[in-house]
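Section 4.2 – Deliverable D4.2 (structural model, holo form)

The reporting period included a commitment to supply a predicted holo structure for the target in complex with molybdenum atom. Inputs used:
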Amino acid sequence: MGGVREVRGVCPLDCQDSCAWIAHVEDGRVVRVTGDRDHPVTRGSLCAKVKDYETRTYAPDRLLHPLRRVGPKGSGAFRRVGWDEAIALVADRFADIIASDGPEALLPHSFLGSMGVVQRRSLMRLFHALGASRPVGSVCGNAGNVIAADGHVLGFDPEDMAEARFALVWGANPLTTCHHNWHFIAEARRRHGARIVCIDPVRTRTARAADEHVVIRPGTDWALAAGLGRIVLAEDLGDRADADARAVDLDAYTAQVEPWTPERVSEVCGVEAATVVRLAREFGEARPALLRAGIGVQQSVGGDAVVRALSALTIVAGHWRHRGGGLFIESYPDLPDARAARPDLLAGDPRSLDIARLGDVLTDPTLDPPVRGLMVWGANPATVQTDAARVRAGLAREDLFTVVIEHFLTDTARYADVVLPSTTQLEHLDVQGSWGHHYISANLPAIAPLGEARTHGDIMRALAAALGLDDPRLEQTDEEIAASALPDGLTLEEVQASGWVKRSPTPAPVRPVRLVHEPPHLTQTPPGMLQLLTPKAHHLLNSSFANMPRHRAAMQEPTLELHPGDAAARGLVDGDPVEVRNAGATVRARLHVSDDTSSGVAVLVGKWWSADVGGTGINGLAPAAWSPGGQPAYNETFVDVVAAGSRAAPDHATVPAAP
Ligand SMILES: Nc1nc2c(c(=O)[nH]1)N[C@H]1C(S)=C(S)[C@@H](COP(=O)(O)OP(=O)(O)OC[C@H]3O[C@@H](n4cnc5c(=O)[nH]c(N)nc54)[C@H](O)[C@@H]3O)O[C@H]1N2
Ligand SMILES: Nc1nc2c(c(=O)[nH]1)N[C@H]1C(S)=C(S)[C@@H](COP(=O)(O)OP(=O)(O)OC[C@H]3O[C@@H](n4cnc5c(=O)[nH]c(N)nc54)[C@H](O)[C@@H]3O)O[C@H]1N2
Ligand code: SF4
Ligand SMILES: [Mo]
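Output (structure tokens):
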């Protein structure tokens, strides 16, 4: 037996914690991954999803060879081919498409399957050099992006949260979605006796751990934020002069929130008027208060307005200038990683296409040129996007050539013409930031790639060569690509030597911002329907791990949670097999009756693959609806719930149209 070798790495998943890990290698095999004890955020622990990440690498259903489609799109029928054949095929088809329709007929589509710089960015070099359509937008918290672009500050060093004297955790479930971040909030309670109040329609793990859970009707948060802002201003709990300097429209804001009395807020949000008053005073008087908001609360048609209203509330209360106070949704280290995609390779100005509207993009008959060549990596759009039926109709187009780079044969990969196997985080070198703290981490390969899996840098170089592109930027090694993302003055060797380094960004100069958002949209459930929420699962990362046996066992099965009154009204009892339906789709689940959810709100946790829930998956239920800023409105989903096999017709009048 050889000894155990310890290799430093970082969890690549789309989670704000970006944990530093140690891979333990014995006889050439990773036997364990553990959290780095010395990392100030990771503090020695990984999470329920990732504590056995090596089982993902060694999973029997892992893709280890290139595949070529032999059956109808979506059927999952493929035959194994060699890399030479796969690369030649992709290069030939891309060249044909460029010749017939121009390079904008190619579209790269990716998200944060891996947040590593090489895995995330390197393939963009190829598409930039070709002049392909540029992917823009986000399937996650685009509302936040839009409001940040308007000058609002969405975060600060999370280690400062421990200095807060009061914490409102608003539409966020950190004990499930980034439990290392929760540590700092809980530290504020330990150090300063800060009270923690959680505002969520669902009694989550976080709501249970908080000192108080305020149940709100989903999609009405703008009204509560306005009502709190009104009291803070009326009772002069903040610093009006400071707020006036920080905002361009304090008077207009004061007028906009004026009608939002506690009584009116109570009627709209379902929160008692006395609670509104008490929360406003606690929030306004604490020096400082933290407002920790999540992504779930943004995922409605009114998401942009909600983020602006939450930021406005922290501004009128004056928290933003104090350490540990103000709005925290996300925060990043100083890692200018977009430059690793080498936008300087772009010749010309190709069009931009919104990745969060892939269904539209692939099926719009007026798009000129239409998208004829698609490459997907680090994303599973067939499962995670709103309007999933249209996404799948697009992916099923016979005149679309689709390449999917994956670890597993996901719902999306089943539609591919060519599937290419990607390395996992234990098999490649990378460097990574975080969207929840200020550390840059190195990831060193613990083992050689399994089977024929390749890094995205390798795939980029092979395709560039096959397409006859010769530019040194398309020949750089993975090390060079990783290094190209680092801030000036920091080398890859330095990050690798210590595993991680803290690099807080230089705060941008504060500029006055707009507090008024017109018109704020409040969600209204059509009569007789239930609003469906699909929050993050404790044992899955979006749709990732939904195929892994341990994670599946922990999840048990797709479960729909209903309030006892809503279940009784439908003649349903706990444990019934049910169908969750609307005009878009029907999804199978097991009913769990519980007052953890509120009346009128159905909760289906986890983005299961189609095989588990049927049809076009949970997002077949989600409408073709986005906020004005492009935030996918996953929560603007209205359903009925019936016993499985019931013939009762779904109410077809209720899927809202896109605004
Ligand atoms: N375990 C696990 N961790 C994850 C993920 C995962 O899938 N699983 N996904 C990762 C990703 S991509 C992201 S973006 C983050 C998201 O992190 P979070 O934002 O913390 O997670 P969500 O579950 O999307 O939403 C948080 C809460 O918002 C509530 N909510 C929904 N609608 C409303 C509303 O209208 N008003 C209010 N007040 N609350 C509402 C939900 O009930 C939920 O409890 O988590 C990341 N971490
Ligand atoms: N109904 C509903 N829909 C939602 C949400 C919701 O709350 N409710 N949440 C939304 C949010 S916040 C987000 S962020 C999106 C997430 O949407 P996606 O980013 O598409 O998330 P995943 O489902 O995790 O898919 C990531 C895929 O990347 C693959 N992958 C991982 N690492 C690598 C790699 O190194 N190389 C390659 N080639 N592939 C890799 C994984 O195997 C996985 O299949 O979903 C959104 N959709
Ligand atoms: S998913 Fe998040 S909490 Fe879990 S190990 Fe990765 S970074 Fe840490
Ligand atoms: Mo996300």
